[in-house]
Write a structure and sequence with these properties.
single chain; seven-stranded mixed sheet; six-stranded mixed sheet; 24 strands
Length: 502
């Protein structure tokens, strides 16, 4: 029998849930149950929010360096559990073992350490003229995270929030909650004060809604779909909550006519296939000069030939399954629509399962050519290993296609001329653009334009997402402060004392 968990991490202890329903956590490679967890209740969310609110004043008043010292202990506890995290992520996400250890967990540990050091060097106070400008914790933060790179995206929220002095209620995806239980265990070992960090597993409509609308929650930080972002924005609006959203993307990799086609296509395919295409940063659109499309398609197919799809626990595997039956059905439907809408050519893969894989939520890596940028597969986020190759005639048309979706999260531009590549990158309406293969920088702000989100994560921007700004106006010279003005001690004129204009 799979393990049966009955509790949530609330107020510094594992606390029995009163939820009547259960959630089954499934191994996507075998379709077998890994565990069952409580389907979190409104009461669970309320207890967690109250615990966080009760711990806030003390935690916010703790000097930043003391908070950082405790959070370093969290990072150390995570490092000790690195292999266990990797095994859990392989089991519940379906990420190949090598990728789970090196990327899912390795990047998470690096991000966690970086968040702590950012807080250590951050200037929480500064003088601006006669004012003291103070950055203070914004309050109780509800951090709602997805299933695709769950540990990384959790760390990217909760470590800055805690470092800023906020207390946290974390709601992980109900599809992949087991890594979050392990993280709560690491945080417990670090001995943070009770209530500073809380974790409640449950569905979005129940636990998510309860947290977003809770009167004691001050900040909501969500990574998820654009649909979920709309719902959270609407729910938070009633109480004018601060809401940060990192949402979907339909990202383009633009290969200019002077670029190294083979290198840029290979890099695009590699990035597109990461995590079996289940990332918001995925370059799912490849834009190439029209007269080089056939060559680009051939190169993309050759690149895909080097990737092995199969059991994620096999060291030889590069691509595991999709995360769930629903994800498999959604991606398969997008592939079918791509073949039916007209115009696009299916040149590799398709809607069927890979050969020899009859169990598990596997799909074939797929390439479409001659994709009309206004069709479904040219516009909508598929969240699977599906590449749409889009030809263009000139640079201006290419940029219009890049910017021609409701999203604006990530992109890439490739050119033999670095200055030209940077100039074109400036024309992207995207929050992040890789220029000629530039690497991800955890110190730089990360977030999207348009319907890809609101706000920024990572670096100082990620810390400031959980801070409020207070200006303390200090007296100047020897005068006396009267209302909003600095006056002398001489009596004010009657006309002045009668005014109340602020």
């Amino acid at each position: 029998m799979p393990p049966r968990y009955e509790d949530q991490w609330i107020g510094g202890a594992w606390t029995a849930s009163d939820a009547e329903g259960r959630l089954v956590v499934t191994d996507p490679s075998t379709e077998r149950a890994l565990a069952t967890v409580p389907a979190g209740s409104v009461r669970d969310a309320d207890l967690a929010a109250r615990a966080a609110a009760g711990a806030f004043e003390r935690w916010a008043a703790t000097p930043p360096r003391e908070r950082a010292a405790l959070l370093r202990r969290v990072v150390e506890a995570m490092e000790v559990r690195a292999d266990r995290f990797a095994d859990v992520i392989t089991a519940e996400v379906g990420a190949p073992a090598r990728m789970a250890r090196q990327t899912h967990v390795g990047l998470s540990l690096g991000m966690a350490a970086h968040c702590v050091e950012t807080a250590v060097s951050y200037a929480f106070e500064q003088r601006v003229g006669h004012s003291l400008v103070v950055r203070e914790a914004a309050g109780v933060a509800a951090c709602i995270t997805p299933w695709n790179t769950p540990l990384l995206l959790t760390v990217q929220k909760i470590l800055p929030a805690l470092a800023a002095g906020c207390t946290v209620v974390h709601k992980p995806s109900e599809i992949t909650p087991l890594h979050a239980r392990l993280l709560a265990e690491a945080i417990a070992e670090a001995d943070l004060p009770p209530g500073v960090f809380n974790m409640v597993v449950g569905t979005g409509p129940t636990v998510g809604t309860a947290l977003v609308t809770h009167p004691l929650v001050d900040v909501v930080s969500l990574t998820g779909s654009t649909r979920a972002g709309r719902e959270v924005s609407a729910l938070g609006a009633d109480r004018i909550k601060r809401v940060h959203l990192e949402l979907g993307g339909k990202n383009a990799s633009l290969v200019l006519d002077d670029a190294d086609l083979a290198a840029s296509v290979a890099a695009t395919v590699d990035q597109m296939l990461f995590n079996t295409g289940q990332t918001c940063l995925q370059w799912s659109r490849l834009l190439v000069p029209r007269d080089r499309q056939d060559e680009a398609v051939r190169l993309a197919g050759q690149a895909m030939d080097g990737y092995v799809t199969g059991d994620p626990r096999d060291p030889a595997t590069d691509l595991g399954p999709l995360v769930s039956a629903d994800a498999h059905a959604r991606v398969t439907e997008y592939i079918r629509r791509g073949t039916e809408e007209g115009g696009a050519r299916l040149v590799r893969g398709g809607a069927g399962r890979p050969a020899g894989l009859t169990t598990g939520y596997y799909v074939q890596p797929t390439i479409f050519a001659d994709v009309d940028p206004l069709t479904t597969i040219g516009q909508e986020e598929i969240f699977g290993p599906v590449l749409s190759v889009i030809p263009y005639d000139d640079e201006d048309e290419a940029v219009r296609i890049v910017n021609g979706t409701r999203y604006g999260l990530h992109g890439a531009v490739w050119s033999g001329d670095g200055a030209r590549a940077e100039r074109v990158a400036r024309r992207f309406r995207s929050g992040l653009v890789d220029v000629n293969g530039g690497q991800f920088n955890p110190a730089a702000p990360f977030g999207g334009f348009k319907q890809s989100g609101i706000g920024r994560e990572c670096g100082t921007a990620g810390l400031e997402a959980f801070l409020e700004t207070k200006s303390m106006q200090l007296p100047q010279g020897g005068g006396q402060v009267v209302g909003p003005r600095l006056r002398s001690t001489a009596a004010a004129r009657p006309a002045d004392t009668e005014r109340n204009d602020g």
